[in-house]
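Page 47, continued from p. 46.
Same chain as before, 514 aa.
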Amino acid sequence: MESPDRTGSAGGPNGSTWVRREPTPSAVGFVDPDVMAAIVGATVEATATDGALTDAQTLVVQAVASMLVGHEMPTADCPPVAPDRLAAVADQHGLTGSMRIAIVKYQALSALLLDPVPPATIRRIEETASALGVDQTLAAASLRPVDDGFADAALLDFARNGYARSFFASGEAAALHADVDPSDGWRTDDHDRNLAERWQRLGELAHGTLGRGVWDFYRSRAFTFPGTPDSASPLLAQHDWIHVLADYGTRLESELEVFAMIAESDDDPHGFSLLAMVIGLFETGAVPSAAGIFEADTGHLDTPGMPERLADALRRGSLVTKPDGSRDGGLLATDWFAHAHRPIDEVREACGIVAKAPAAIMAGSAGTWDVAGLSDFQVAHCDLTILDSYHHPHTPEAPQVDNDDIDPTVPPSGTGCVECDRTGGWWVHLRRCAACGHIGCCDTSPSQHASHHAQDTGHPVIQSFEPGEDWFYDYRSGDFVDGPTLAPPTSHPADQAVPGPADRVPPDWRSLIH
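Result:
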């Protein structure tokens, strides 16, 4: 049964100082557009059903492609590409073995959004793998149907502990510092006194270190420490270090992000089963439960902004290494206790963990220390003073804006987009002009009234008007910036629909957004 303190729903963007850093040049747009166009075309060719991708597939495939290229790349602009043509492009551009594996995993990700995955789709992905010189068992292990109640073999692989078997067989279990039965690596190990004491000693480390951050992460969520009764398994607890390092919250959408990043950090096909697991849990429902703590709660990739958040997590995972510079086994295969004493930023740099893309933050990617990153249960039970200790709103990394650009005394114009309410339109998210209080719809929305207002009035700074979000953004620089507390209310009502208003959102709204 899933523990309620590990669940939740839609999150909000991170207000912490770390993610406000400007992404490095290598962090966004590091894949050649011609290569990406061929990959997208090949993915459409391999995973389309009756000649077309589903809405969910289209959103995810476009989001990943756009994030990796650095500009918008609609699937409609990428004609179908056969496997042999894709292989020729890969040869021409000298794609490495890990990039070729990533292409097959990218196609498998698109396929996993189908429930069940058609056999013809699996065959086409296997043809891609063969053409690229990738072991065809990658596609088979990820998607091949089985006959015992699970739709996909990758999901079965996780449920039967295939990932755990690989983890233990490779000798990586030493990183857990736990007495774990290798035949059931996901079981709850709740009577391991030595492990429990090791986790408790993290609280003795200095504030700002990785270990202290993980200890505070557990205390702020009222999570039970590994090795004690009713705790998560030591192997599952490995992903909590990544929550802190990568700055992800603990709502279910955040779990999709963190496992996507972890899965992409591992070139081994078994690592992909982790992402298959969370998609099966939190999107299609193909996996009813997993790892002794998660239960199915479907449809979370349908949340506005989630394709962009998932894409950014995959991008970040493709760039990371373990602290020693290798990628063997990915981020889970690291003895994080050996790095617990180091400052968090130092470990992030050692792993090459880049900042979240602004698009992911604006799409709602919540951070570890933000209230928006907590489930309702966690908000009711957590110690907010712990979260507050990690917030330093005014730092050199977050530029200050000119006082002339903000009037903190002006209240918002209302609870909805001014122009949409006037014309009967609808929106996805709302933005507040920091100068005059105008509420407009975001750039994902059909009409993009917030940015049009900025252009028409010369008011360049906005603040999110979504519950739990407090970030400012400057249209001139394209940067997140710091600003003062604005006049209340600071968001629309929490029970207001997103997208909204509910009675004006058309059934085909996904095809109408940017």
